[in-house]
Write a structure and sequence with these properties.
2 domains, four-stranded antiparallel β-sheet, transport, ATPase_V1-cplx_csu, Alpha-Beta Plaits, V-type proton ATPase subunit C, alpha+beta
Length: 390
């Protein structure tokens, strides 16, 4: 599954003499370095700005929500990967946003004015997004946990029926005739590795006291073990089990139940049906959850760009937003080119080295700038967010 890199950014329209958004967009597009990167328009609605203090607080809140939403998306994608056992084709078919691949959704993105009304204050919109994202994340985790629990139980039941005679269920093998019913005597079951068969047959009578001589009999065998029955006095059955382990034989402590096989088959069938049901429910929830989380993530990033643009460029609002998409290397080159061209927008945070190359100054002033804008992230000369989606 290929991973695409995205560089979501905004720049003031003053980067061009005309101050027109279309011209500013063309100026940004002129930094294209290869056919592996393309620039998409990214329209941002006009939100209610509120006070500067509110915007600063929301910048930090949105940075946290951005990271939380990405983590929730990753979890939903991991659930899909687990559901389809790593089948990349099936995973891709279900990792859609509004029935589209992520890039197509981003390319045709418009703000959802029904769910997130732009006339509401930004803190209210952020609160709605946060509640929605947390609910989706919790629902997916809960459903997947239930599915994993049922799946694990089913695998345990299946292993019990498919292992060798030292571990598997003996319900389908044992018969009433294998067990001695007496007040003082009982039948002990011992799984013996095949290479040790002769040794066991020649020494079993001396493994412990009170073993009935010549009472051994073979019940079943597989490629690794032979299951024997041995008659022993009940009071010494525990001693026989202990001695058997010392000789690396495997005592099987089983109480015969004529209905055991039917009960195990019914339990396994029930677990299979429950696992199939939960598989379908988990798939539907993970698929829907991924779509809604990815859409919410783009809305969160839209708000981040808007808030940071207001904090960075001030009023009146006059900036152009766009999104580069492509291979990581190509996007990295575009990012470097843009930062070099528009380093002056970063003010004193940027300078030039002895060779004239633009460099960022790592000092306390830059740290203050990062704390006041960009939601506490690394300070850049203009608003930009680099992210990847597989």
């Amino acid at each position: 599954m290929s991973t695409q890199s995205y560089l979501l950014l905004s720049l003031p329209t003053s980067i061009v003499k005309t101050g027109h958004k279309d011209d500013a967009f063309d100026a940004i597009n002129s930094h294209k370095t290869s056919s592996e990167a393309s620039l998409l328009p990214f329209n941002i609605p006009d939100f209610k700005i509120g006070t500067l203090d509110t915007l600063v607080l929301q910048a930090d809140e949105l940075a946290k929500l951005d990271a939380a939403t990405e983590a929730a998306m990753t979890k939903a994608a991991d659930v899909l990967k687990s559901i389809f056992d790593g089948n990349e084709i099936r995973i891709s078919e279900n990792k859609l946003v509004n029935e589209k691949p992520f890039q197509n959704y981003l390319q045709s993105f418009t703000w959802n004015r029904v769910k997130y009304r732009v006339e509401r204050p930004i803190p209210d919109i952020v609160s709605i997004l946060k509640s929605e994202i947390q609910s989706l994340d919790e629902d997916i985790k809960s459903k997947y946990s239930n599915y994993q629990s049922v799946k694990s139980n089913l695998q345990t039941l299946q292993r019990r029926q498919q292992g060798n005679l030292s571990t598997r269920s003996l319900a389908s093998i044992l018969k009433p005739s294998h067990f001695l019913t007496s007040e003082y005597l009982t039948t002990a079951l011992i799984a013996v590795p095949k290479p040790n068969e002769k040794e066991f047959l020649s020494t079993y009578e001396t493994l412990s006291t009170m073993i009935v001589p010549r009472s051994v009999f073979k019940i079943s065998e597989d490629p690794e073990f032979i299951l024997f029955g041995v008659v022993v006095f009940k009071k010494h059955a525990a001693e026989l089990s202990h001695k058997a382990r010392e000789h690396r034989y495997i005592p099987r402590d089983v109480t015969y139940n004529e209905n055991a096989n039917d009960e195990e088959q019914a339990e396994t069938k029930s677990a299979e049906q429950q696992a199939d049901k939960l598989w379908g429910e988990t798939l539907r929830l993970a698929r829907t959850g991924y779509s809604e989380l990815a859409a919410a993530w783009v809305h969160v990033k839209t708000l981040r760009v808007f808030v940071e643009s207001v904090l960075r460029y001030g009023l009146p609002l006059d900036f152009v937003s766009a999104c580069w998409v492509g291979k990581a290397k190509a996007i990295g080159k575009v990012k470097d080119s843009l930062e070099t061209q528009y380093a002056h927008l970063g003010g004193n945070a940027y300078g030039r080295d002895k060779k004239g190359k633009i460099v960022r100054k790592d000092d306390a002033n830059v740290a203050e700038l990062a704390a006041g804008t960009m939601g506490g992230s690394e300070y850049t000369p203009f608003v930009e967010y680099l992210f990847e989606v597989a």
